[in-house]
Write the structure tokens for this entry.
Amino acid sequence: MLNRLLSHDLPKSRWLGIALLVIVLALAFAPFLFPGSKALGVAAKMLVFVLLVASYDLLLGYTGIVSFAHTMFFGIGAYGVAVASTHWGPGIAAVLGGLAVALLITLLLSLVVGLFSLRVKAIFYAMITLAVAAAFQTLASQLSDLTGGEDGLTFKNPELFSPSFEPFENPLFGVTIDGKIFSYYLLFIVVALLFLALLRIVNSPFGRVLQAIRENDFRAEAIGFRTVVYRTLSNVLSALFACIAGALLALWLRYTGPDTTLSFEIMLDILLIVVIGGMGTMYGAVVGSALFVLAQNYLQDLLKLGEATLSGVPVLGSFVSPDRWLLWLGVLFVLSVYHFPTGVVGRLRALAGGRAE
């Protein structure tokens, strides 16, 4: 049953299986295991990045396409929900309508970008997508009447997902069940289903053609596959999943703006997570997102503890200052790439394969 659920793509490593099980269980019971708004926010961000990074890995890891326009589609999904909820009023109809419009725009844009750009060489395609993403970010910042400009849009969720919605009088396992909890489990269920769908895609005959194109597109073309069509379909599918991830983030935050969805920093985070987790492995999106988001949110707290412990040591005390958390994050990334050149998932699978031999 589990084999079918995972599309016959099992972890293939005991330690990887344990890590995935711990992450999934922690995310599934996060509202009860880690009380507090910050912890729940970190778990929600982790879920969004799992879907966002997995969708990008379909493009980069499985098809071999480097694109910098992924955050554009991420932002389209977020703005679709935000604009609809702002101008049509809060409600399920507004959310679904905004998401439908966003998906349609994403479909058309990704199709156009794919058809016009995927015929050029990789570096030129990357530059084209970077220019398109930058233009879209500028457009979102300038259309203040529609998008709120640099300030973004703050909107109300449907009542079911509003923090003020409390259907039960008594807490459940010490946790007050409100609209925020419902929002979190909406994210969890949607991300889980879409992640399983992505697993099915990459393990289907279509996914195997994408991997053949990644390895040698000339050979795939010679065999008889129309590589432009497959690469365009991969671009479209990746963009649609990213669009849904953006809509989920907007629902969770009840806000969207250029910095939360369209910034180039988010694109860099996606690339870092793909490298840390392992390209061409959907499980890498889960492991990489968990490690990166945890480090991004709790590294400063760890450095504060280190600074307090080493306060009497002149040099080391200042070296572990919380203000230098980005430096330490960079050091951790360099170490992870050095020790796990194929990503955490690739390394664990290689070790498991070596023991099997």
Notes: The CA atoms of residues 7 and 200 lie 5 Å apart. The domain at 2-356 is CATH 1.10.3470 (ABC transporter involved in vitamin B12 uptake, BtuC).
